[in-house]
Amino acid sequence: MNTQPSESRKQRAARRAGEFPPAPEPLAVPVFDSHTHLDITVHEQGVPGGGDDPVEALITAAAKVGVDRLVQVGVDVASSRWGAALAARHPSVLATVALHPNEAPTLPDLDEALREIETLAAEPRVRGLGETGLDTFRTGEAGRPAQERSFRAHIAIAKRYGKPLIIHDRDAHQDVLRVLDEEGAPDTVVLHCFSGDAEFAAECVRRGYLLSFAGTVTFASAGDLRAAAVLTPPEQMLVETDAPYLTPVPHRGRPNASYLIPVTVRALAEVTGRDLDALCAAISANGERVFGPWR
User: Fold this and answer.
1) Which domain holds residue 254?
2) How far apart are CA 295 and CA 120, in angstroms?
3) Helix axes of 198-206 and 223-230: crossing angle, nearest 10 degrees
């Protein structure tokens, strides 16, 4: 007989908020996570089911539901080094390297950090520069010159190495386009966690950019984002987690991880009226075109 007091609804909700959601139904056609932060996920949330090697456990959990490849994204020098080292030893992982736009204004020597990013960009399994870009939500006026200088430097590095540019754009749509126009965009540009409306999506599609949709597309308030997804051609669409953030509905508020990609890609198929298997196949083909082969 249980003599312990039962949890209240509030206690149960608080406990579950820190737990990873259950695994979704596996996909029939594999797809990849175009933007994840395995290091941050492990540091902040741990791993579903535990395990001796938490990074390997996250990769395995994703593979079990048909998410067979990941792109590990750097946000500073340390995470970029970590991601490059992981990609070098793991066949399911490719890496991108960058200084996050909110990181750039905080650095005592931005030029030295950019030199380190450029050195990492030369590594064969580093396949992109990102996430870089502009963020006027978190960085105030005083930090914006350094943020923009960093963005321009990343554009130049991407062009020198012929690698895609992965853009963080928060409340800065027109400034992002302005800088890309002034510098000349690389051949491949990805709008990570696309957050614009249909009008901005149409402009990005016209320019040939790829739009990567995260769990935000499932949020009740994201009508504009769903409208943007509808007009994005399959050959310009990617799907991501941005884990451990932006967990899709019905698990919003709990930790995110790459194994939850099926929830978001099923929502994208429903929103756009596209066949799920065909959409997964198109996204996978986009991944190979943008980032190159994983193996």
Assistant:
1) 28-291
2) 20
3) 30
- Spell out the long-range contacts of 81-86 with Cβ–Cβ below 8 A and sequence spacing 24 or more: 81/120, 82/39, 83/38, 83/39, 83/126, 84/120, 84/123, 84/125, 84/126, 86/38, 86/55
Identify whether 20 is part of a domain.
no
Neighbour order of strands in the sheet with 31-36: 31-36, 67-73, 93-97, 126-135, 165-170, 189-191, 210-213, 237-239
Q: Is 45 helix (H, G, I), strand (E, B) or coil?
A: helix
The better pLDDT of the pair 14, 136 is held by 136
What whole-number distance in Å separates Cα of residue 48 and Cα of residue 193?
23
Read off the DSSP letter of residue 130. E
Helices (H), the chain: 9-17, 38-45, 54-64, 77-89, 110-121, 144-161, 173-183, 198-206, 223-230, 261-272, 276-291
- Give the pLDDT confidence of 196-231 residue by residue, as tens digits: 999 999 999 999 999 999 999 999 999 999 999 999
Q: At what angle do helices 261-272 and 276-291 cross, to 10 degrees?
A: 110
Domains of the chain: total: 1
Alpha carbon distance 254, 21 (integer Å): 7
**Residue 179's CATH number:** 3.20.20.140
Does 220 fall in a domain? yes
The C-alpha atoms of residue 71 and residue 288 are separated, in whole angstroms, by: 11
Nearest to 88 by CA among 61, 58, 123: 123
> How crowded is the C-beta side of 33, counted as CA atoms within 13 Å?
35
Name every residue whose Cβ is closer than 8 Å to that of residue 156 and which is 6 or more positions away in sequence: 183
Model confidence pLDDT, tens digit, residues 22-36: 999 999 999 999 999
- Count of beta carbons in the 10 Å neighbourhood of residue 12: 11
Q: What SS3 class is residue 241?
A: coil
Is the residue at 246 inside a domain? yes
Is residue 3 in a domain? no
